Amino acid sequence: MLKVGMRAPDFSNPDADMNNIELSQFQGKTLVLYFYVRDDTPGCTTEAIEFSDLESKFTKLGAEVLGVSRDDCIKHSEFRDKHGISVTLLADKELVTCAAYGVLQDKEVDGIMRKSVVRSTFIIDKQGIIRHALYGVSSRGHAEEILQLVKELN
């Protein structure tokens, strides 16, 4: 698990439009990087909509919001369009970024052990340092909680 004060691990993932997004693109900005289980599930949809609804407030604070899951770019695109999601969604099919941020756990599903994503959020400052690392968060109301933490950083 990552801790406050650590340098955020680099990442390079495609978004819903297949544009490559890297951590280095956010130098000089606050970055909210949230990890979620899967597109179009009730909790993940709620979380993405709430972050999207608050996106202009994050922008006013100089913060960008990115969501990451193991879904592919096409699934992200369909999810975004279906629910009007405005925050950028990154595909991590190979779970490289999820592993780097320590958000994977082994979970038994139908008698088979599988890697599952723990809903988690990181606030990364303008210098690339983790200022908040929250693991196992709830979806409802989480975006507002993160907005308050970003306000406190400014």
Written overview of the protein:
The protein has 154 residues and is of the alpha/beta class. The chain has one domain: Glutaredoxin. It has five helices and nine strands; from the N terminus they run E-E-E-H-H-E-H-E-H-E-E-E-E-H. The protein has helices at residues 42-53, 55-60, 73-83, 96-100, 142-153, and strands at residues 12-14, 20-22, 30-35, 63-69, 88-91, 104-109, 112-117, 120-124, 130-135. The strands form three sheets. A five-stranded mixed beta sheet has the order 5-4-3-8-9. A hairpin with a 5-residue loop joins strand 1 (12-14) and strand 2 (20-22). The radius of gyration is 14 Å and the shape is globular.
Quick structural overview:
Helices cover 30% and strands 30% of the residues. The protein is an alpha/beta fold.
Could you say how many structural domains there are in total? 1
CATH fold field value = Glutaredoxin
Structural class: alpha/beta
Q: Return the string of H and E elements.
A: EEEHHEHEHEEEEH
Relevant CATH superfamily = Glutaredoxin
Mean pLDDT: 96
The major pleated sheet works out as: 5 strands, mixed
SS field, number of helical segments: 5
Low-confidence stretches: none
Estimate what percentage of residues fall within beta strands: 25-35%
| Strand order, largest beta sheet | 5-4-3-8-9
Q: Helix content range of the residues, please?
A: 25-40%
Q: Total number of β-strand segments?
A: 9
Straight-line N-to-C gap: 25 Å
CATH class: Alpha Beta
Query: Do you know the CATH architecture?
Result: 3-Layer(aba) Sandwich
Shape: globular
Rg (C-alpha, Å):
14 Å
